[in-house]
Amino acid sequence: VEFSVKVRLFGSSILLNDKEAETGTSFQLNQSDVKVLELPGGGGFGAARERTTNLHKMDIEDGLLSPLIDINT
């Protein structure tokens, strides 16, 4: 048995034998079938306030975080 991790930022998909399966449908799995669930998520590791300013800037540039906005201005 082999497991691997693929990072996915947005959306999700279900693959059955390398073909996209329609979500919400039922299908029977045979012994040789390979089902792959690609799901977004992951909350990161550790407290966000402990990350460096540079890492926060990189997350904003990559679209993973929104910049803070001062609502008092």
Automatic annotation (TrEMBL):
This is Hydantoinase B/oxoprolinase domain-containing protein.
